[in-house]
């Protein structure tokens, strides 16, 4: 009897495995589709500024559709008939660099550094589309792929925009496709101008707003299927997007396809013209920061940049600033000290008629200031300063100088081939 009870007990304990029943596994964590799409698409999405003159600024959204040719897609009514525009790509923060910095003030306060100018290159006024060719594409920006075909009614779609009434930029909006069809409509660009459009459009239930115009509409794979045109003011939950087929018609124009990847915009020469300088500007190490071997590279670098790229390169170090009392300057608040050295560098650059890179290092007070011309990459100055500071903190002054030289040459396409 005891054997029978033991057998029944063992069968009960091991029955699920013995009978071939699957073990219960914890359900895998699902990734929200909207969040996943947003992370893919936001790095392709830009905030567009179009200066209409007279203090009037039109803003909208766009997307990078060709990284090699540096092409940003937006609406015609965002840029109007103005030949130039400025775009801002999103910046990121957080441990993994995935959190979008969405505050408008962050970008307007850094307009000189983050704003990228571009030429309005192609217009399709009938379909309300435009292509901007920007001067450069920042690191981390990605190209938004075009979907193979237009979406179907009932399909989930996602859009990102910069609505003017919102306090945030790069705002996500989900939606469903209601229908895809051909449409004629009118839009009031300003108090005096009304334009007519005719194109194939996608109608969705997405709640879009002014400022979203020109932004991307994508499918669940993060592929572009349309361009935000606007919401219907006299209807609820109806928004209009210019269909993918119109986008393809624009980007496949012969004039667009003939653009060379990486070529500078036709209206923006690689190096702005300036009177050629016969001899490179001299640098000086009065602060005695660098060794003889490291310092010997400065003059040849300046000569090479001037001869081949018409660009100046100057490094000046001081024991104390040539103007002002060192102790009083050291006692200034950080912002006031920064202002003092900026004014000093600006005056020096004007005196030298300098066009290129200027590096100032002071021993007392310990200060580093770097100025670069606007035609150089906007992030070059911060990168040079960061590299030099990192080396100085480890007392590797020669190594820091070498990094500055190498990075400057590379920025002008004169780096050594490896």
From TrEMBL:
Q: Give start-end of the signal peptide.
A: 1-20
Basic and acidic residues composition bias: which ranges? 271-283
The answer to whether keyword GTP-binding applies is no
Question: What ranges does the record give for the region Disordered, renumbered to this chain?
Answer: 261-283
Q: Which InterPro entries match?
A: Peptidase_S1_PA, Peptidase_S1C
Answer whether the UniProt record assigns the keyword Nuclease to this protein. Answer: no
Q: Which UniProt keywords apply?
A: Signal
| Source taxon at top rank | Bacteria
* SUPFAM superfamilies xrefs: Trypsin-like serine proteases
Q: Can you say what this protein is called?
A: Trypsin-like peptidase domain-containing protein
Q: What is the lineage of its organism?
A: Bacteria, Pseudomonadati, Planctomycetota, Planctomycetia, Gemmatales
């Amino acid at each position: 009897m005891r054997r029978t009870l033991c057998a029944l007990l063992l069968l009960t304990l091991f029955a699920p495995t013995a009978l071939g029943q699957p073990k219960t596994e914890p359900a895998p964590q699902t990734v929200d589709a909207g969040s996943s799409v947003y992370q893919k698409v936001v790095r392709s999405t830009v905030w567009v500024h179009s200066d209409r003159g007279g203090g009037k600024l039109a803003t909208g959204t766009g997307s990078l559709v060709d990284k090699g040719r540096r092409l940003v897609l937006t609406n015609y009514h965002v840029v109007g008939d103005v030949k130039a525009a400025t775009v801002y790509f999103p910046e990121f923060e957080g441990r993994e660099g995935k959190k979008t910095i969405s505050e408008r003030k962050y970008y307007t306060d850094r307009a000189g550094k983050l704003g990228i100018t571009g030429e309005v290159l192609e217009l399709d006024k009938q379909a309300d589309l435009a292509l901007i060719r920007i001067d450069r594409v920042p690191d981390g920006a990605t190209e938004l792929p075009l979907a193979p075909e237009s979406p179907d009614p009932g399909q989930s779609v996602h859009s990102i925009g910069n609505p003017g009434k919102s306090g945030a930029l790069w705002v996500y909006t989900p939606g469903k496709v209601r229908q895809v069809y051909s449409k004629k409509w009118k839009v009031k660009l300003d108090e005096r101008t009304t334009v007519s459009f005719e194109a194939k459009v996608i109608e969705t239930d997405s709640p879009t707003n002014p400022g979203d115009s020109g932004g991307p509409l994508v499918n669940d794979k993060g592929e572009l299927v349309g361009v935000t045109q606007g919401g219907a003011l006299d209807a609820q939950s109806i928004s209009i997007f210019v269909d993918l087929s119109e986008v393809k018609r624009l980007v496949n124009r012969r004039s667009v396809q003939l653009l060379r990847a990486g070529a500078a915009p036709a209206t923006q020469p690689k190096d702005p013209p300036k009177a050629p300088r016969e001899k490179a500007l001299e640098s000086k190490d009065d602060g005695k920061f660098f060794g003889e071997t490291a310092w010997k590279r400065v003059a040849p670098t300046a000569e090479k940049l001037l001869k081949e790229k018409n660009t100046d390169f100057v490094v000046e170090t001081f024991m104390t600033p040539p103007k002002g009392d060192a102790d009083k300057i050291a006692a200034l608040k950080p912002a006031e000290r920064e202002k003092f050295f900026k004014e000093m560098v600006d005056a020096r650059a004007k005196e030298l008629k300098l066009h290129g890179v200027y590096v100032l290092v002071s021993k007392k007070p310990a200060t580093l200031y770097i100025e670069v011309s606007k035609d150089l990459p906007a992030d070059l100055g911060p990168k040079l300063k960061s590299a030099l500071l990192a080396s100085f903190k480890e007392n590797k002054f020669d190594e820091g100088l070498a990094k500055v030289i190498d990075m400057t040459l590379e920025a002008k396409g004169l780096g050594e081939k490896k």
